[in-house]
Design the sequence.
C-alpha cells in the first residue's frame, strides 16, 4: 500500500467517526469534552456554529452519528451524542453576546428564502452576518417549518424551538409569515440577487384504499393531522386509533393520538418490525406508551357498514428475501383480518410538491417531479435559484437540511460576489499535540467501561395527559459527565513519524486492541489479513507509514483504536504522538 | 491523565485451543522505561505461551533481581511466580523442579543477574541440564542500578555515561555450550519473528534451554558507541538460519521445498523446521555451534537464531533417577515407608 497522506484533511476526518457521519460535520468530541469540563456555553457554541439548532437537535436529531460512533464497535452502545448536545443547550448561559455581529451597513444584495424551515434558517444564519438583506416567506404563523408543524411538543417544547429560531430571525430577517407563495414568477419578478427554495416535502402520501371515500372524516393524512394539532385546529381523536406506517411520522402520530383521547392506539405496519423505518428509540418510546406495533400486515380496505365506519382490514404477510436481500411481502393465504377502530392516521410517507413553480420559469424537473439540483452547489437550472433541505432531494431530516443550508449559503455568497459557484472552500484544520508531561495528556485518555446511561423520562401518567409536557427530562449533570467520559476522543489522533521510530515494538505490545503491526508492505487485501488482529471492517482505513529501516512498514488499523494514547506513552522516541485534529467546515464568507 | 490499560479488546483477537485470548497471558502494565527491550521480550513470551495454548497454572516464572527480573510481573499474570534474590534464581528453580517436575519452569534473568553475581548458579543449572527455559534479557549493563557495565558489555563498548569497557565480555551462549546446556539460542528483542518460535521450541525442549536475548536498555545503553543498542544490533545481526516451530497438535504441511529444510522432532512430538541455514552451521553439533560463534565474533557480528540443541538429552530428573510422581504429591506413606523398609536398607548396607 502507499503510505497514508495524513496531510489530506479527509484522512483524519474519517477517523472521527461521529463527525464524519454528521451531515453538518459537527466536531462532536470537542463539545463532549467541553461538557465534561462544565463549559456548557462553549459546548453550545461549538454546536451552534455547525448545526445551528443544538437545543432542537439535542432532542430530535436523527443522529446518524450514533450508529457510526466508535464506542458502538468496541462495546454494545454508542455514546449518547445527541442527548449530550441537549445538556449543553439546557445548561448554557445567555449567549446573546456570542452571536455574530450583524453589520448595519448592508452589502446591497437581496436574497429571498421560500419556506421557514431549518434549511432556509441556516442560509439566513450564514448570510445575515455578511450584510445580506433577507426576505423569508412561509405559510405558517412563525418560523421553524416542520420542526414547528410536525415535531410534537412532547418531544420538542415550543420554547426551545422558538429560542433557536429567534436567534436567527432577530438578526434582522424580514419575515413574511402566513404568506403562501403561489408563484415563483412573482418572486423572480422582485429581482432578488438570489432565491433559496426550502419548502420541504409538504405532502403526505395517501393510500387511496377501497372504502376511503365512504369512511371520509375518519381517515386522516398523518402530517396534515399533526400540523392541525400543532396549530390547535384539532384537539381530539377517537378512542380506538389505527396508525398505518412504520416510520417516525407514524410514531409521532400514535403518541400524539394517545394524548388526544386515543386509549386503544395501534401501529400497524406492512413490513417486519426489524425493517421498519422508524428509529429504534422512537419505537421504544411508542411501545412504552402502551402502543402495540403489529407488523407484517398489509392494509386492504376501509370497512363501512350501514354508513358507519368500522375499521380496516389487512392481509397477513410473510417477508421473503431473495439472494440479493430484496424483500417481498407474500400473503400467508389466511383470511383478511379486521381491526376495528374509530379513526385512522395514514403515515406512509411524504412527497415533494411544487404546484407553485410554473414549469416555464426555467427550473428543470425530472420524471418524478423533482427539481434538477446540483448536489454540491444546490444550484438549480436558473443560476440564481437554489434549493435545499427536503425540497432539494426529498424528505430527510433537520440536520441534513442544515448541512444543505450551509452549502447553499456558500454558493449564494459566491454567486452574489461573481465567484465560481462550484468552488468549495477547504475545511479549517488544526493538528495539535496533547502531551502535557509524562503520563499526562490534555484529554481524559482513560477508557471507562460504563455502559450507556439512560435518559430519564417524566412520569407517563403526566405526559399522556398533556401533549405539551416534554417526555424526556434530559441527563442530570452528574450523569452527563459520566456519559461524556464514555467518549473515546476520536479526534485525538495517533500520529506516526517514521524517522523517529527505532522499531522497539513497544507500541505493538501495549496497544490494548492490537491496532499496530510492523510488517513488510503488501497490497491492502493481504495486509488486512497479516495484521495483529485481522482488519475486517473495510469501512475503516489502514494507516500505513513509509518504509522503515528494516524494510517493514507500520500499519495501524483505525477500526478499533481507543485513542487511549498508550502507544504514544510507551514510545521511547515520541514517534507516536496524540494530536488533536480539529476539522471545521468552512462557511460562507469565511 | 491516565496510565491504565483499557479493558476493551479487539473482537478479532485470536483465541487459542483453550479458549484464551492473548490478554489472558498478559500481566500488569509494565513500569520499565518506554522502549525497553525487556518489554518486547515479555510480549514475545506472552505470544509464545498463547500460541502454545499453555494452561497458565502449569507454568512458573522465576527471576532474580534487575529490571529484567522485574519483567515477569508484566506477563503471565495468571501463572505461578517467584521473584528471588540477586543471582539465585537457578537454585530456586532447582528446588521447585525437584518438588514438582510437572510444571514448566521459565527463568528470567539479566546479564548482571546471570553473568556476574549469579554466574556460579547459572553454570551449574546448565551443567545439570535442569529442565527449564532460561531467558537472559541482555542489555550489557545493570539497568536497575543506573547502567553500570555488566560482564557481557563488549570490550570497547561505551554506555551512555560510562567509559569504554576495558574487559573481555562473557558470551553466555558459548559458556553454556561448554558446560553442557542442551538447547542454546541467541536472539534480539527487536526480532519477534525469530524470538517467538525460539521460545516455543525452548519450552518444548526437555532439558536446560538458554535463550540469550540482546535487549537494548533505552535509557543507559542505547547510545551510538554501545554495542547493545538497537541500531548496532540491527546492523551487526547475522542469523544462523530461519526456524519454524510446529507444535505436535498441528499437521505438518509441506511448506518447504524438498531438501531445503531440516527437521528436528522434539520429545513431545513437536517439530522444528530449520531452513535457509548458513554454511557449515549444524545446530545438532556442539562443535559447529562453538565455531560459528567464534567466527562471528571475529567478524564483529552477532550470531542469532538456534545455535545448538540435543533433542535426546537427559534432563536432571532422568539423570538422577527421581520418581516419576512429583515429590510434592508424595504422601507420608511413600516418604516414610516404615521401620521394616528402613531395616532392610540398613541390612543391605552392612
Ligand atoms: C412527523 C414528522 C416528524 C419529524 N421528526 C423529525 C425529527 O425528530 N428529527 C428530524 O431531524 N427530522 C424530523 N422530521 C423531518 C424534518 O422535519 C424535515 O426533514 C425538516 O424540517 C426539513 O427542513 P426544510 O427546511 O427542508 O423544510 P421544512 O421544515 O419542511 O419547512 C418548509 C416550510 O416551508 C413552508 N412552505 C412550503 N411550501 C410553501 C409555499 N409555497 N409558500 C410558503 N411556505 C411554504 C412549509 O409550510 C414549511 O413551514 C420529521 C418530519 C415529520 C413529518
Ligand atoms: C546481593 C545484591 N547485590 C547487588 C544488588 C544491586 N543490584 C540490583 S540489580 C543489579 C544488577 C542488575 O543487572 P541485570 O541483571 O543486568 O538487570 P537489568 O536491570 O540490566 O535488566 C544489582 C547489581 C542487589 N540487589 N543484591
Ligand atoms: S467515541 Fe466520541 S469521538 Fe468517537 S465516534 Fe463516538 S462520540 Fe465520536
Ligand atoms: S491510541 Fe494507540 S495504544 Fe491506544 S488503542 Fe489506539 S493505537 Fe492502540
Ligand atoms: S514504540 Fe515508538 S519507537 Fe518503538 S516501535 Fe513503536 S513507534 Fe517505533
Ligand atoms: Mg542488564
Sequence:
Amino acid at each position: 500500500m502507499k503510505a497514508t497522506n495524513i496531510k489530506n484533511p479527509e484522512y483524519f476526518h474519517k477517523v472521527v467517526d461521529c463527525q464524519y457521519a454528521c451531515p453538518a460535520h459537527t466536531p462532536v468530541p470537542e463539545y463532549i469534552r467541553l461538557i465534561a469540563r462544565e463549559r456548557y456555553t462553549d459546548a453550545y457554541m461549538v454546536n451552534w456554529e455547525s448545526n445551528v439548532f443544538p437545543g432542537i437537535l439535542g432532542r430530535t436529531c436523527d443522529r446518524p452519528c450514533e450508529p457510526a460512533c466508535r464506542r458502538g464497535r468496541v462495546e454494545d452502545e454508542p455514546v449518547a451524542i445527541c442527548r449530550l448536545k441537549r445538556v449543553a443547550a439546557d445548561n448554557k448561559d445567555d449567549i446573546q453576546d456570542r452571536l455574530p455581529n450583524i453589520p448595519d451597513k448592508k452589502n446591497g444584495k437581496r436574497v429571498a428564502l421560500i419556506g421557514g424551515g431549518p434549511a432556509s434558517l441556516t442560509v439566513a444564519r450564514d448570510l445575515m452576518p455578511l450584510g445580506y438583506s433577507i426576505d423569508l416567506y412561509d405559510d405558517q404563523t412563525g418560523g421553524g417549518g416542520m420542526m414547528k408543524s410536525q415535531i410534537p411538543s412532547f418531544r420538542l417544547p415550543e420554547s426551545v424551538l422558538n429560542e433557536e429560531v429567534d436567534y436567527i430571525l432577530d438578526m434582522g430577517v424580514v419575515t413574511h409569515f402566513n404568506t403562501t407563495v403561489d408563484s415563483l414568477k412573482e418572486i423572480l419578478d422582485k429581482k432578488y440577487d438570489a432565491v433559496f427554495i426550502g419548502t420541504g416535502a409538504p405532502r403526505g402520501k395517501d393510500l387511496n384504499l377501497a372504502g376511503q371515500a365512504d369512511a371520509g372524516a375518519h381517515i386522516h393524512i398523518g402530517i396534515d393531522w399533526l400540523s392541525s394539532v400543532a396549530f390547535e385546529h384539532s384537539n381530539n381523536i377517537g378512542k380506538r386509533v389505527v396508525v398505518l406506517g412504520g416510520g417516525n411520522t407514524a410514531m409521532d402520530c400514535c403518541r400524539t393520538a394517545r394524548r388526544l383521547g386515543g386509549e386503544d392506539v395501534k401501529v400497524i405496519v406492512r413490513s417486519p418490525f426489524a425493517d421498519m423505518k422508524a428509529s429504534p428509540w422512537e419505537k421504544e418510546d411508542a411501545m412504552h406508551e402502551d402502543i402495540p406495533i403489529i407488523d407484517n400486515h398489509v392494509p386492504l380496505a376501509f370497512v363501512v357498514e350501514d354508513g358507519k365506519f368500522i375499521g380496516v382490514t389487512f392481509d397477513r404477510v410473510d417477508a421473503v428475501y431473495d439472494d440479493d436481500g430484496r424483500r417481498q411481502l407474500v400473503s400467508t393465504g389466511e383470511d383478511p383480518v379486521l381491526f376495528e377502530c374509530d379513526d385512522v392516521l395514514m403515515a406512509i410517507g411524504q412527497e415533494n410538491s411544487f404546484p407553485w413553480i410554473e414549469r416555464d420559469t426555467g427550473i428543470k424537473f425530472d420524471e418524478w417531479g423533482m427539481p434538477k439540483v446540483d448536489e454540491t452547489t444546490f444550484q438549480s437550472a436558473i443560476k440564481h435559484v437554489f434549493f435545499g433541505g427536503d425540497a432539494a432531494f426529498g424528505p430527510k431530516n433537520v440536520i441534513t437540511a442544515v448541512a444543505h443550508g450551509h452549502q447553499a449559503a456558500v454558493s449564494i455568497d459566491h454567486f452574489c460576489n461573481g465567484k465560481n459557484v462550484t468552488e468549495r472552500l477547504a475545511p479549517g484544520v488544526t493538528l495539535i499535540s496533547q502531551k502535557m508531561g509524562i503520563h499526562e495528556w490534555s484529554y481524559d485518555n482513560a477508557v471507562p467501561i460504563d455502559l450507556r446511561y439512560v435518559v430519564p423520562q417524566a412520569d407517563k401518567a403526566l405526559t399522556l395527559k398533556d401533549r405539551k409536557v416534554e417526555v424526556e427530562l434530559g441527563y442530570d449533570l452528574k450523569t452527563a459527565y459520566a456519559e461524556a467520559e464514555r467518549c473515546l476522543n476520536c479526534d485525538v489522533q495517533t500520529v506516526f513519524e517514521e524517522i523517529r521510530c527505532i522499531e522497539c515494538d513497544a507500541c505493538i505490545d501495549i496497544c490494548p486492541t492490537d491496532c499496530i503491526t510492523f510488517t513488510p508492505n503488501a497490497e491492502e487485501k493481504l495486509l488486512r489479513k497479516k495484521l495483529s488482529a485481522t482488519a475486517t471492517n473495510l469501512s475503516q482505513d489502514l494507516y500505513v507509514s513509509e518504509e522503515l529501516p528494516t524494510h517493514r512498514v507500520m500499519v495501524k488499523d483505525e477500526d478499533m483504536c481507543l485513542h487511549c494514547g498508550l502507544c504514544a506513552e510507551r514510545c521511547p522516541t515520541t514517534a507516536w504522538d496524540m494530536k488533536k485534529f480539529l476539522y471545521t467546515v468552512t462557511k460562507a464568507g469565511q | 491523565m491516565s496510565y491504565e490499560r483499557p479493558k476493551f479488546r479487539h473482537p478479532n483477537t485470536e483465541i487459542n485451543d483453550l479458549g484464551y485470548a492473548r490478554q489472558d497471558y498478559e500481566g500488569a502494565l509494565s513500569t520499565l522505561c518506554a522502549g525497553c527491550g525487556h518489554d518486547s521480550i515479555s510480549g514475545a513470551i506472552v505470544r509464545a505461551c498463547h500460541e502454545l495454548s499453555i494452561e497458565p497454572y502449569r507454568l512458573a516464572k522465576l527471576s532474580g533481581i534487575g529490571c529484567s527480573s522485574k519483567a515477569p510481573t508484566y506477563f503471565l499474570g495468571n501463572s505461578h511466580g517467584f521473584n528471588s534474590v540477586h543471582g539465585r534464581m537457578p537454585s530456586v528453580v532447582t528446588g521447585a523442579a525437584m518438588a514438582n517436575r510437572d510444571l514448566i519452569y521459565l527463568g528470567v534473568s539479566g546479564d548482571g543477574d546471570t553473568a556476574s553475581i549469579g554466574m556460579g548458579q547459572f553454570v551449574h543449572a546448565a551443567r545439570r541440564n535442569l529442565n527449564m527455559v532460561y531467558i537472559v534479557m541482555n542489555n550489557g549493563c545493570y539497568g536497575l542500578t543506573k547502567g553500570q557495565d555488566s560482564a557481557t558489555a563488549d570490550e570497547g563498548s561505551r554506555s551512555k555515561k560510562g567509559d569504554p569497557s576495558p574487559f573481555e565480555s562473557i558470551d553466555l551462549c558459548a559458556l553454556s555450550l561448554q558446560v553442557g546446556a542442551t538447547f542454546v539460542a541467541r536472539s534480539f528483542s527487536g526480532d519477534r519473528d525469530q524470538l517467538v518460535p525460539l521460545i516455543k521450541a525452548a519450552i518444548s525442549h526437555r532439558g536446560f534451554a538458554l535463550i540469550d536475548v540482546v535487549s537494548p536498555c533505552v535509557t543507559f545503553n542505547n547510545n551510538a558507541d554501545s554495542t547493545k543498542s538497537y541500531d548496532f544490533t540491527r546492523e551487526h545481526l547475522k542469523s544462523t538460519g530461519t526456524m519454524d516451530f510446529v507444535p505436535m497438535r498441528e499437521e505438518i504441511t509441506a511448506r518447504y521445498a524438498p531438501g531445503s529444510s531440516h527437521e528436528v522432532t522434539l520429545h513431545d512430538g513437536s517439530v522444528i523446521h530449520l531452513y535457509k541455514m548458513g554454511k557449515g552451521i549444524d545446530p545438532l553439533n556442539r562443535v559447529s555451534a562453538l565455531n560459528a560463534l567464534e567466527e562471528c565474533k571475529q567478524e564483529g557480528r552477532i550470531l542469532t537464531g538456534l545455535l545448538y540443541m540435543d533433542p535426546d538429552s537427559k534432563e536432571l530428573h532422568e539423570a538422577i533417577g527421581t520418581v516419576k510422581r512429583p515429590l510434592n504429591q508424595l504422601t507420608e506413606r511413600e516418604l516414610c515407608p516404615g521401620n521394616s523398609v528402613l531395616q532392610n536398607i540398613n541390612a543391605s548396607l552392612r
About this structure: The pocket of thiamine diphosphate (ligand 2) is lined by residues B 65-68, 86, 110-113, 117, 137, 139, 141-145, 150 (CB under 6 Å). The domain at 22-320 of chain B is CATH 3.40.50.970 (Rossmann fold).
